[in-house]
Write a structure and sequence with these properties.
- The strands form 2 sheets. A 5-stranded antiparallel beta sheet has the order 3-2-4-1-5, with helices on one face. Strands 8-7-9-6-10 form a 5-stranded antiparallel beta sheet, with helices on one face.
- The radius of gyration is 27 Å and the shape is elongated.
- Strand 7 and strand 8 form a beta hairpin.
- The chain is an alpha+beta fold and 623 residues long.
- The chain has 27 helices and 10 strands.
- The chain starts with 19 loop residues before the first helix and ends in a 5-residue tail after the last helix.
Length: 623
C-alpha cells in the first residue's frame, strides 16, 4: 500500500470516552509540564513530586507503590547510571582532552578547520561516551582553541553542543534518551506483542544516525556558521567582554581615612555596600590572598569591585581617593603568568544549583571573588549575591592559582579554560578503551544485555584502577537518575489509564487529512517542541506511548514512530534549556536566547524532514 493512502479503518473512527482516571493523569502531566518549564523546582524534585502524586492518587492513576518506585529498578535507569560512571572513567584517563589538543594542533588559526575539528571530534566521541560530560570536558578546550586561533568562541561553542547531540544519535549508548526509549519500547512490546516493538540493539539505528550527523555537520559548516553571531569578539579579554571597566576601581587610603587600622572585613565587609576588595597594593607589593583579616594602612591602594554609585558614596565618607582602575585583564593582573580570572559554568549536580552566592559560601570555600554573573544570557555586574543559581549559569571568578586548581578538579564546576597541570591517568587509557569496547561489543553480539555489560564495565574499571572506588558515587549525575525514576511511572499511568490510547486516537484522526508519513512528521515536530521546554527524557516518556498507540490505530509501523520520537528528543536545538549541553555553552559563548532559535530552528526543521524520510527509507512506515 502507498504511504500516502489513508487506511479505511481511520475514517469515522470515534474517540474513546474521557474518564476520570484520564483527567487525573492529564492534570499531573500538566503540572509536570508547568514545573519543568518554569523551573520553580529542580527537575529531579519535580520528577519525584510526580512519582509521589501518582502513588497517592492510585485509585485514579492506577499506579501502585510498587509501580511508582519501579523507575529506580528500571533497566534504563541502571544502564544510564552505569554509563555515567563509565564516561567518568574515560574522562579520568584524559583521552578526550588528548583528542581535543590534537584537534587544536590540526586546526591552528584556520577557522574552517577549527569548526570541522570541533564537529568531527565531538560527534563520534559522543556516540560512545555520554555526550553531557564530553561537552563539559571540551568547553575549555574549544574556548582556548578559539581565543588562541583569533576566532570568536561564539562561532564554535554552539556547534560543539549541537555536534554532541548529533553524535548521540549514532548508538544506543550515545544519550540517556536512547537508553530510556529502548526500555519503554521493550515494555510496550512485551505488553502488546502486536506492536512489534523491542529493545533497541546497539547499532540498530546507526545508519540513520550517520545520515543525521552528516546532514547536521554540513549545515553547521555552511549555513549555521553564517547565522552564528560573534557575541564574544575574538581578541577581547574577559574584563572587556563583561564590560567591567565601570565596576573596577583603584582607591588610595588617605592619612585621615577612618579605615586606617581596620581590617578589610571590618572596613568594607558590609554586604549592604556590595563591595569586594580584590587586591591590596602596598609599597609595590600586591596582596590577593584572602584579605578579610589584613589591616589597612595609610597610602594602601585598594582594588575594588563595585558600581559607580557606591564608589562615589564611600570616597568622601571613608577618606579615599579614586586613582582610576583596570581596563583589561593585563591591568587587573600585571606580570602574572598564571590565569587568575576565569569563567566558571555551573553544571547539573553542582552544589551551587538552587543556592545563592551568599548561602553557598562560595567565596569562603575557594578564596574567590565573583566579578560578574551571567544567567540565561543576561550579565549582572552588581547585587548578585542573592540571585538563585541555575544550571548553566556562568560566574566570572577571580581567584589565586591554588584555588583555581581546586575549582578545575571539582566536578561541581566547568572552568572554561584548560590548565596544563590537570591530573589524568594516561597510563590507564588502554584499559578504559578496552572496557568500553567490551561494553559496546557484548550487547551488539547479543552475548549480554546492555545493562549487564555496562555494570560489568563499571566493575572492570574499578579492578583495573581506571576509577577509584570512592569516585563511583561522584560520577553519577543523581538528578538525571531521579528524573528517570520519577517520570517512568508517568508513562505507565498513561498506558494503564488509557490516556495514551486516547491521545493516540486523537492524533490518529489527522490521518484523514495527512498521509502516514505526515503523521510521523507531526510526532517528530511535537516531540521537538516539547523537548525545547522540558527534559528530553520526560519527552520520550510522554510521547512514546502516544506514538505507539497512534501507529496501532492507523496501521503504521510502531517502531518507526518510536524512532521518530527518540531522534526528536535527542536533538533539541531551538532553546538553551532544551538540552543540558546547550546550557554549558550558553555563558562562555556569550549567547542570547534567540541565538539558539536562529541557528537551531532551521536545523531542527531540516532534520525533521531528513529523519522522517530516513525512517521511511530504512524501516518503512507501514506495519
Amino acid at each position: 500500500m502507498s504511504l500516502f493512502v489513508v487506511p479505511p479503518l481511520i475514517r469515522g473512527t470515534a474517540l474513546a470516552p474521557v474518564t476520570g482516571d484520564m483527567l487525573v493523569t492529564f492534570a499531573i502531566i500538566l503540572l509536570a509540564l508547568v514545573l519543568f518549564t518554569t523551573e520553580w523546582l529542580p527537575i529531579d524534585v519535580t520528577a519525584i513530586l510526580v512519582m509521589v502524586l501518582l502513588m497517592v492518587l492510585e485509585p485514579w492513576t492506577q499506579i501502585s507503590p510498587q509501580e511508582g518506585i519501579s523507575g529506580f529498578a528500571s533497566p534504563a535507569t541502571i544502564t544510564v547510571l552505569a554509563m555515567l560512571i563509565l564516561s567518568t572513567g574515560i574522562n579520568r584517563t584524559g583521552i578526550v582532552q588528548t583528542l581535543g589538543r590534537k584537534m587544536a594542533a590540526f586546526a591552528g588559526v584556520d577557522k574552517r578547520k577549527q569548526l570541522a575539528a570541533t564537529i568531527g571530534v565531538t560527534g563520534p566521541v559522543s556516540g560512545f561516551v555520554n555526550n553531557t560530560p564530553v561537552v563539559a570536558i571540551l568547553v575549555p578546550v574549544i574556548a582556548d582553541l578559539a581565543h588562541n586561533g583569533k576566532t570568536s568562541p561564539s562561532k564554535l561553542l554552539i556547534p560543539l553542543s549541537f555536534a554532541s547531540m548529533l553524535g548521540g544519535t549514532l548508538t544506543l549508548i550515545g544519550t540517556s534518551t536512547n537508553i530510556l526509549a529502548s526500555d519503554i519500547a521493550a515494555q510496550l512490546g512485551a505488553e502488546s506483542p502486536e506492536l512489534g516493538l523491542h529493545a533497541f540493539e546497539m547499532f540498530e539505528f546507526t545508519k540513520l544516525g550517520v545520515v543525521v550527523f552528516a546532514v547536521g555537520a554540513v549545515y553547521l559548516m555552511t549555513v549555521g556558521v553564517r547565522l552564528l553571531p560573534e557575541r564574544v569578539p575574538a581578541e577581547e579579554d574577559l574584563v572587556e567582554e563583561y564590560a567591567l571597566q565601570e565596576y573596577l576601581a583603584d582607591v588610595v587610603v588617605t592619612a585621615n581615612s577612618p579605615l586606617v587600622g581596620q581590617t578589610v572585613d571590618e572596613a568594607l565587609g558590609d554586604d549592604e555596600l556590595d563591595i569586594d576588595v580584590l587586591q591590596l597594593i602596598r609599597d609595590g607589593e600586591r596582596f590577593s590572598e584572602p584579605l578579610a583579616h589584613r589591616e589597612i594602612h595609610e597610602s594602601d591602594t585598594l582594588r575594588l569591585r563595585t558600581n559607580r554609585g557606591t564608589l562615589e558614596q564611600i570616597l568622601d565618607a571613608e577618606g579615599l581617593t579614586f586613582v582610576g582602575g583596570p581596563r583589561t585583564e593585563d591591568d587587573l593582573h600585571p606580570g602574572e603568568d598564571e590565569p587568575v580570572l576565569v569563567e566558571v559554568v555551573v553544571p547539573s549536580g553542582s552544589f551551587l544549583v538552587g543556592e545563592t552566592l551568599a548561602s553557598s559560601t562560595f567565596r569562603q570555600r575557594y578564596d574567590a571573588n565573583v566579578l560578574a554573573f551571567r544567567t540565561r544570557g543576561e550579565v549582572v555586574r552588581d547585587r548578585f549575591e542573592d540571585i538563585r543559581i541555575r544550571v548553566g549559569d556562568t560566574l566570572l571568578v577571580q581567584a589565586p592559582p591554588d584555588s583555581l586548581t581546586r575549582l578545575v578538579r571539582n566536578e561541581d564546576f566547568i572552568v572554561a579554560h584548560e590548565f596544563d597541570d590537570a591530573d589524568y591517568r594516561g597510563e590507564k587509557i588502554p584499559f578504559a578503551v578496552g572496557i568500553l569496547a567490551g561494553v559496546v561489543a557484548l550487547p551488539a553480539l547479543n552475548v549480554l544485555p546492555i545493562v549487564v555489560s555496562a555494570l560489568a564495565g563499571v566493575v572492570a574499571m574499578i579492578l583495573t584502577g581506571v576509577l577509584k572506588p570512592n569516585e563511583l558515587y561522584k560520577s553519577v549525575e543523581w538528578n538525571v537518575i531521579f528524573l528517570l525514576a520519577g517520570v517512568i511511572p508517568l508513562g505507565i499511568s498513561l498506558q494503564q489509564t488509557g490516556a495514551a490510547a486516547l491521545l493516540g486516537s486523537a492524533v490518529a484522526s489527522t490521518a484523514t487529512v495527512l498521509p502516514v508519513l505526515g503523521v510521523l512528521w507531526v510526532f517528530y515536530l511535537a516531540t521537538g517542541l516539547l523537548t525545547s521546554v522540558i527534559s528530553n527524557n520526560a519527552s520520550v516518556v510522554l510521547m512514546i506511548p502516544v506514538a505507539a498507540s497512534t501507529a496501532q490505530s492507523i496501521g503504521a509501523n510502531a517502531f518507526a514512530f518510536v524512532l521518530a520520537v527518540t531522534f526528536a528528543a535527542s536533538t533539541a536545538f531551538m532553546t538553551p534549556v532544551g538540552y543540558q549541553t546547550n546550557l554549558f555553552v550558553y555563558g562562555p559563548g556569550g549567547y542570547t536566547f534567540s541565538d539558539f532559535l536562529r541557528v537551531g530552528a532551521p536545523l531542527q526543521l531540516l532534520l525533521s524532514i531528513v529523519t522522517v524520510l530516513g525512517i521511511a527509507f530504512f524501516w518503512g512506515v507501514r506495519a
